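Key result, reporting period 2: structure in, sequence out.
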């Protein structure tokens, strides 16, 4: 940067001065310049940078330019729609396609923009929450009015430590923690503290004092079908953003249930990918779909906990766990079922113990569940058990009891397809099928 260059006013984000934009350069030009510098310091297909001071500065400058670009859009047209801003930001941040791909213009790419790409949410009172991203690297900032002009009031990347975030998850948004070096150092214990992340954002009802609230639903940059995510809830009091709740978890990218706000129940619903104790699946499989619920009231937020969306498969998991550990099974399954699977489960136990003394698994599992009026029918295919047809009945406490297990043969020895997903869809018989 030339010492004699005249600078535009710098952006003030949560008390942190970001890189100014040179006089004579547009926000778009500054973004493109910073993007090119950052790409020199990242992998070919990801945005984990090398941790250098140049990469950190380029990341900060890139998002500073995006913030200025968005402010310019609103200053030119204060009534600009969220949809129009989303489209403009997509055109700004869309990446060139690799040489082997079918080439499309930026306009063509943005016509079918990814659901996790640049997003904006109108919070009312001239507040606009913006979550720009390029590839799988992004940020979140809040635009408002100061002296009649649109300006950045807050940025998640510059947030101070929050009392409800003892694990430091919010810090993953900082530019210096979007590096491969950070992940190498923190991967075993604090994986959630390293970025980069990209987000969807949404408006929540105001609190009892009329303060705006919103959520940030973010995914961590990564390869494979299963990724890390964090979701957070914030309150804006006019001067500061206060974190009210945050959680980190795993998610399968094609999972049917994502994150949404149920206005009727006043609850933020967060879809997650859980794990069974005795079964595993592939990274691009949904395994054990879970749902976390956070109640949003005028007085604050309340974590209602995480619940499994496949209690019938949980019943099988519990049954296999008891068999493998020599525990009583009469409360969860019939004697016939225990006799049929007992020796096979013990064989799987011996194989598991060769890997690790405390480990147990029947291997990779796929399952299809058909819920009936009185119970459930499950077809499951496990590496160590083969294909099984499991019949269940509902119990008084809302769980399931395994009444019968059979081993199909011939053409019947095939499960229709994986089904660890929601929502439930009614079939023509009035029962429920999980697809």
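The corresponding designed sequence is given below.
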């Amino acid at each position: 940067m030339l010492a004699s260059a005249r600078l535009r006013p710098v952006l003030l984000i949560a008390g942190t001065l970001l890189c100014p934009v040179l006089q004579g350069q547009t926000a778009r030009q500054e973004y493109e310049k910073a993007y090119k510098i950052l790409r020199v310091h990242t992998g070919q297909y990801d945005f984990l940078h090398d941790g250098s001071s140049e990469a950190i500065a380029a990341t900060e400058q890139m998002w500073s330019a995006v913030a200025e670009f968005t402010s310019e859009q609103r200053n030119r047209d204060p009534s600009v729609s969220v949809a129009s801003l989303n489209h403009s930001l997509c055109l700004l941040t869309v990446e060139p396609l690799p040489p082997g791909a079918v080439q499309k213009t930026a306009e063509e790419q943005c016509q079918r923009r990814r659901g996790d790409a640049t997003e904006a949410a109108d919070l009312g009172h001239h507040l606009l929450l913006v979550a720009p991203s390029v590839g799988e690297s992004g940020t979140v900032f809040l635009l408002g009015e100061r002296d009649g002009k649109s300006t950045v009031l807050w940025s998640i990347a510059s947030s101070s430590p929050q009392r409800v975030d003892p694990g430091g998850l919010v810090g993953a948004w900082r530019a210096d923690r979007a590096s491969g070096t950070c992940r190498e150092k923190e991967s075993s214990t604090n994986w959630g503290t390293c970025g980069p992340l990209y987000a969807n954002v949404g408006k929540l009802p105001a609190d009892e004092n009329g303060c705006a609230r919103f959520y940030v639903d973010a995914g961590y940059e990564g390869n494979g079908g299963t990724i890390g995510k964090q979701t957070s809830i914030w309150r804006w009091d006019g001067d500061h953003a206060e974190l009210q709740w945050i959680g980190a978890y795993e998610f399968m990218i094609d999972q049917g249930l994502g994150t949404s706000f149920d206005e009727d129940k006043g609850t933020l619903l967060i879809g997650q990918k859980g794990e069974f104790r005795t079964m595993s699946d592939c990274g691009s499989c949904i395994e054990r779909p879970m749902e976390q619920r956070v109640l949003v009231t005028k007085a604050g937020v309340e974590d209602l906990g995480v619940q499994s969306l496949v209690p019938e498969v949980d019943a099988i998991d519990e049954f296999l766990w008891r068999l493998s550990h020599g525990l009583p099974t009469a409360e969860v399954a019939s004697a016939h079922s225990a006799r049929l699977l007992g020796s096979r489960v013990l064989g799987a136990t011996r194989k598991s113990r060769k890997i690790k003394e405390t480990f147990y698994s029947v291997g990779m599992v796929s399952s299809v569940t058909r819920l009936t009026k009185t119970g459930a029918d499950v077809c499951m295919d496990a590496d160590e058990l083969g294909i099984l047809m499991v019949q269940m009945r509902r119990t008084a406490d809302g769980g399931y009891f395994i009444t019968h297990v059979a081993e199909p043969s011939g053409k019947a020895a095939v499960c229709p397809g994986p089904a660890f997903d929601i929502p439930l869809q009614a079939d023509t018989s009035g029962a429920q099928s999980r697809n």
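The chain has a mean pLDDT of 85. Helices lie at 27-40, 53-76, 82-93, 106-111, 180-186, 311-324, 335-355. This case is discussed further under Risks and Mitigation.
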